Amino acid sequence: MVKLKSLPLSPEAQLRMIGWDWMLGTDTLPYLTHELVLVKPAEAQAYYDAANELYDLFVIAGQHVLDQNRLTELGIPENLHELIRLSWDDDRHLHLYGRFDLAGGLDGQPIKLIEFNADTATCLPETGLVQWAHLKANGLDDQQQFNTLFESLVENFQTLRQQNADLTPSLLISTMRDSPEDDANVSVLGEAAREAGFDVDYEYIDTVEFSPSDGIFKQNAQTGQFEKFDFWFKLVPWESIAWDSPELADLLTQMVKNRKAVVVNPAYTLLFQSKGILKILWELNPYHPLLLATTNQPVAGRSSAEKVLFGREGANVRLLDANGRATAEATGEYGEQAKVYQEFVDFPRDAAGNYYQAGVFFAGEGCGLGYRRGGAILDNTAQFCGHVIE
């Protein structure tokens, strides 16, 4: 049973007081709960250890996929294959951050990997700043959290600068238009990058200029001049670029090859993002205590979760019983994609019957814990729930 601690004061006033109202996007606060999940010190340590061990497993699995030419099996578009290999083989292309979604970890339940949001993970403001401010606003010790997310992002941006010292530390951050949640997330990244010494600017992806011979540019609205950026962060999925903007995929491949830009997160994170990697992980590490059996077909006699390779926020997930009948399903726009079947595991629940999925961020190491709370399939209506270590 998930145990909760209710805190009466909202974190909003605390965030404004310390000058962090820049990340209070219109989608950031409304779905936050006033309750925190109670986590024991040993449970927090186990989440940290699990994230670090899982990342090592993903790196080994990614190398296996490349060595065995299994990119297509993971559903990865062919027009990204070259860029994935280029970025994988060059340590200057740093994986800035990602988020592991995990079942268990509370009340004696074992931690199990659900998936890895390696490319465009969100929940940065909530995990890194809001839940911290929630503790502070209610007079609690801010050390009572597994939460060094912001500091770890700053350190990784510093590493990115050091590994690319031949480039100017100029970073352009892009999202799609009309997505306030994305805007709030990249505000956190921009602030971390500034602390690490980058010059940071923002531009929606549809107005960024790309040149294979010259690099990435934004037009200055005041002067009309085009300003060049050597680093580009895009909160836009790699597979969407490949499918919807193949010419951009080609341009980015040429730019990376010509050393005209570093793209963050790099293209190889799509190896980890594809849920096809869950099957590879199980092949390479059968019965590993952090993994769930994952196959291409439903396993007879066992409950499973049916997932499309590149679904997001629970879309197109179906929960199947041991006879293959759906007990819960979510609609979505990814239904035509190939699927994998992951052994079903129940999420921890509270006294009201809400389900909890842990999200553990990884930025060089495990660095931040938060929870999403909702129904049996956690979709984009799920709430964010912070935690306190007691």
Task: Chart the SSEs and their pairings.
Blueprint: E1 4-6, H1 12-17, E2 35-39, H2 41-67, H3 81-88, E3 98-103, E4 112-117, H4 124-137, H5 149-163, E5 170-174, H6 180-195, E6 199-202, E7 209-211, E8 215-219, E9 226-229, E10 231-234, H7 238-244, H8 246-257, E11 262-264, H9 269-273, H10 276-284, E12 294-295, E13 304-308, E14 318-320, E15 326-329, E16 339-343, E17 355-362, E18 366-374, E19 383-385, E20 387-389
Parallel strand pairs: 2-20, 5-6, 5-10, 10-11
Antiparallel strand pairs: 1-2, 3-4, 3-17, 7-8, 8-9, 12-16, 13-14, 13-16, 14-15, 17-18, 18-19
Helix pairs in contact: 2-10, 3-8, 5-6, 7-8
Walk me through this protein's architecture.
This protein is α+β, with helices and mostly antiparallel strands and about 400 residues long. The protein has 2 domains: about 5-275 and about 345-390, no CATH class; about 295-345, no CATH class. Helices cover about 30% and strands about 25% of the residues. It has 10 helices and 20 strands. The protein has helices at about 10-15, 40-65, 80-90, 125-135, 150-165, 180-195, 240-245, 245-255, 270-275, 275-285; strands at about 5, 35-40, 100-105, 110-115, 170-175, 200, 210, 215-220, 225-230, 230-235, 260-265, 295, 305-310, 320, 325-330, 340-345, 355-360, 365-375, 385, 385-390. The protein has a 5-stranded antiparallel beta sheet with strand order 4-3-17-18-19. Helix 2 (about 40-65) packs across helix 10 (about 275-285), helix 3 (about 80-90) packs parallel to helix 8 and helix 5 crosses helix 6 (about 180-195).
